[in-house]
Amino acid sequence: KLTSLALQPVITPELVQGRVHLKCTFSRPSSKVPLQYMVVWSRLSTPGKKEQIQRDTTLQSFSYVEMNSVNLKLGDTVFCIVTAFTRDTLEQQSLPEESKGFYAGIKFLPESLQIAEDGKEHVLTILSTVPIACPGHIDSCKITLQLSTEDLGNQLLGPPNIALSACQVDLLRAPCSESSCAAAALTVTAVTDFAQDGNRISRIRAEPVGWRDLLWRAYTPKDVKVTVRDLPTGNCYSFTDPHIITFDGWRYDNYKIGTFLLCRSMSRAFEVHVRQWDCGGHRSATACNCGVAAR
Questions:
Q1: pTM of the full structure
Q2: What range(s) does the VWFD domain occupy (predicted)?
Q3: Which of 18, 88, 106, 286 has the most other CB atoms within 10 Å of its CB?
Q4: What's phi and psi for 215, nearest 5 deg?
């Protein structure tokens, strides 16, 4: 047996003659005897089970496999295992070394979100780990993703649970770096629904649309799960002649006649005006609400 050679195989994506390939690169050890390498490519077919898709014997310190949407498709997690042999005899071999799993497809970062009904915007990044091949479409080399949301609860007639800053995004081809060959970002916000409906779960779905090659045609990325934490909603009141209870629970009366500013947000364009008229006659100075305007 050869000793452990620290081959350290790594998978990277690459375009070869306009088609998407994965490249398994490994370190060539400083061995006194000439070596050759066996590279076995496999994909994760079910959790914990790998399926062999290609076997190469090479003198080079790399091996390619094509993503042909037959035995290797978008959405697959791919591995390569490298074993070194002495060139003149196959009996002497090193221990096989396996690469980390390479996910080939579209990724969402983060893969799931936990947000609250507090109006905050959360950035969701969408990236492709493989380059986008555009033969004959050099000017607009991109994949367009149509985005949609779905509430997984029983709120069939309720408002949507989350809001996205865009209905579709374009993944424009860029040089591959740090496991991203194209990326786009959008924001996700929980809808404040003024209802005590508990924590709810939604999902965001992305679907490639428009022109695309065979590799992308049958591919739908994995959904993003979004958990929305319910927050209590503040209330304020103006009722009868009128008694007023503020958001923070203060109580007082306003018997005057006229138009008044009932409340105004300090952070956004939101205010409520109320109009009061005389409803007490000569006997008492009492006013009642007769109109409201909200912006």
A1: 0.77
A2: 234-295
A3: 106
A4: -60, -40
Q: What are the Cα distances from residue 169, in Å, to 106, 154, 186, 215?
A: 13, 29, 8, 19
- The Cβ of residue 6 has, within 10 Å, a number of other Cβ atoms equal to 10
Instruction: Yes or no: say if 185 and 124 are a contact pair by the CB < 8 Å rule.
Output: yes
In sequence order, the 6+-apart residues with CB closer than 8 A to the CB of 144 are 168, 169, 170, 171, 208, 209, 210
β-strand partners of 119? none
Nearest to 13 by CA among 110, 133, 124: 133
Cα separation of 35 and 40, whole Å?
16
Which residue carries 């591959």 as its tokens? 176
Q: What DSSP element (H or E) covers 267? A: none
- The string of pLDDT tens digits covering residues 216-259 is 887 889 999 999 999 887 889 999 889 999 998 999 999 899 99
Contacts 24+ apart (CB under 8 A), 233-239: 233/192, 233/194, 233/195, 233/196, 236/262, 236/263, 238/262, 238/274, 238/289, 239/289
Amino acid 85 reads: F
Alpha helices in the chain (DSSP H): 214-217
Residue 101 structure tokens: 């799993």
Per the listing, tokens 């007490």 go with 280
8 A C-beta contact, residue 61 and residue 26 = yes
- Closest C-alpha among 189, 188, 202, 114 to residue 155: 202
Cβ–Cβ under 8 Å, residues 219 and 73: yes
Interatomic CA distance for residues 159 and 250, integer angstroms? 31
The pair of structure tokens assigned to 26 is: 């490994």
Cα torsion for 199, 189, 295, 155, to the nearest 10°?
-40
